[in-house]
Amino acid sequence: MIKISIDAMGGDHGPNVVIPALQIVATRRPDIRFAIYGREEVVRPELAKFPGLAEKSELIHCDVAVRMDDKPSQALRHGRWKSSMWKAIEAVKAGSADACVSAGNTGALMAMSKFCLRTMATIDRPAIAAIWPNMRGESVVLDVGATIGADAHQLIDFAILGTGMARAVFGIERPTVGLLNVGVEEVKGQEEVKEAGRMLREANMASMSYHGFVEGDDIGKGTVDVVVTEGFAGNIALKTAEGTARQIGGYLRAAMSRTLMARIGYLFAKGAFDLLREKMDVSRSNGGVFLGLNGVVVKSHGGADSAGFAAAVELAYDMVRNRLLDRIEADLDLFHARNPQSPAIRRSDVAADEEG
Amino acid sequence: MIKISIDAMGGDHGPNVVIPALQIVATRRPDIRFAIYGREEVVRPELAKFPGLAEKSELIHCDVAVRMDDKPSQALRHGRWKSSMWKAIEAVKAGSADACVSAGNTGALMAMSKFCLRTMATIDRPAIAAIWPNMRGESVVLDVGATIGADAHQLIDFAILGTGMARAVFGIERPTVGLLNVGVEEVKGQEEVKEAGRMLREANMASMSYHGFVEGDDIGKGTVDVVVTEGFAGNIALKTAEGTARQIGGYLRAAMSRTLMARIGYLFAKGAFDLLREKMDVSRSNGGVFLGLNGVVVKSHGGADSAGFAAAVELAYDMVRNRLLDRIEADLDLFHARNPQSPAIRRSDVAADEEG
């Protein structure tokens, strides 16, 4: 049995989307159980529609819900100890749930997750990992926005975290790992990327195959299984790709409705277009995973529908089932046993981060 | 008359692509003249195929050609004073050409351009600006990879440079300007972006309308006319968008050849697909523009065909015609007259940059 704690109040739609999503997952993953946190008067009626789900779920009433526009500091002030988001995370810490899923706002969820679960022993900063569809399948890209900037040691942490996730989610024994960089040679700066590259090559870890530097277009090509970068560039890459996909979708719709011939062609090829839409649909691989914490937290897209939220819950389930945290801890231990000096010389940002 | 100096030896195809491109431009821009730099024995026979073009062109033999895989320092060592790339740039410095176009390698072209033309008086670092198609038309995005990192003053320089380009190329009187940032609030770091935002708002310049922060997906939406960022994130955004466009193009081709119905639909909608391909074709808006130098240098994509190279030459022509440099200089003067302290407190990287 795997138990997932759910913040039912997060996202643009709340329980109306979350509860039907859990019903979808419950039919596909029979050994799953839910601890659902939210306002009883809105969640209970939704849950009543799915008696089979209700049997597998425990509903815990929470007065407070973190709002989508709360700043992280506001959310911590008003929602700590008592909000549905906090309680769902706390269930993971207490061991009463194996992982937590919320569609609530990213900043608040990260701030609460860090405060409640804390980072793993040798990890300075958590990362948000995205599952990114590419021409060969899917890859893990991190950090897509947990923090800005990363030194060489933090980039190596991200590489280990992302490798663990690729192994747990894709079932790849030894994922290939690339460091995101710019192609222009002899450009000044980003010394931390070069240093991380040197260290990863020297470490020659059994769990990952270090590929070298990759550029932005390698993400879509699927050159590597795990793409590592700091959160500013990673977030901009992710959002730019989403924007480009929407832009091309718009071109395509406009082109297919422009002439009678195009509209006829569209009707013939409708099956193909539906398949294409599914390929381009971000909700199929929905879920930003918070890595580097003492617990698994998955952030669903705030605007996701039930299919999207279900994908995020199944992602959490799969990572627990495949022992993500154990894999990561083993790799971190191995790396630090071989590189005993590395924790000492790293810059610690833990204290500074927790002020926010 | 506008005279453009051409490095005929750059790019993957050299004169075979460059010379036919010039012929295309010459028919569309009757008052254009060319100074063509390259190995006479390969350029002369190409030029002989277009007698009309030959009349408008001067061919200057250069023994040395910078290779596509030369590092910037190698190119400077072997190609300074004598390569076709160097001579084409030098023609702009000498005033015998109004602008320079090359499809040679970016790093070498930037190194030579900086060395030969130098940065404008108040500008620390040049930027590479891309013309980026979006859902509302086109925008200018910079820096897409000239240098890594930028402080607040350099971001403001980029905003002024990009504004001048948007005015000269798109004919917009007062372009909207956005600073690329991540959406997560209260994230630490990127203080330089926040400071640049404050300064741009306070400056309230007549030539630009400062919009505020934009995110990665705003580029494709066309939220602003000019998107400003430092070169690492900008390069990754550009390459990621290119990769995403190719990825979706691949999905589309696969979907349209999968079933008989889809293939029939494709035949009906072929006109629409051709239009779509044209929309997605990067060569239509080909050309990275080097801004912040005492002269206009346009970098054409190395793999561009003649239509693509022609687009780059016409971009150079349009910028000269619309007095790009005068506009930029006027705006820089205005900004620094109002903010007299700003050059003093800026960090100067000029010396460090020129070592590379």
Automatic annotation (TrEMBL), chains A, B:
A single Gene Ontology CC term: cytoplasm
Main subcellular location of this protein, as a coarse class: cytoplasm
Subcellular location: Cytoplasm
One GO process term, biological-process aspect: phospholipid biosynthetic process
Catalytic reaction(s) noted: a fatty acyl-[ACP] + phosphate = an acyl phosphate + holo-[ACP]
InterPro entries from the UniProt entry: FA_synthesis (IPR003664), Phospholipid_synth_PlsX-like (IPR012281)
Assembly information from the UniProt record: Homodimer. Probably interacts with PlsY.
Listed name of the protein: Phosphate acyltransferase
Taxonomic lineage: Bacteria, Pseudomonadati, Pseudomonadota, Alphaproteobacteria, Hyphomicrobiales
Gene this protein is translated from: plsX
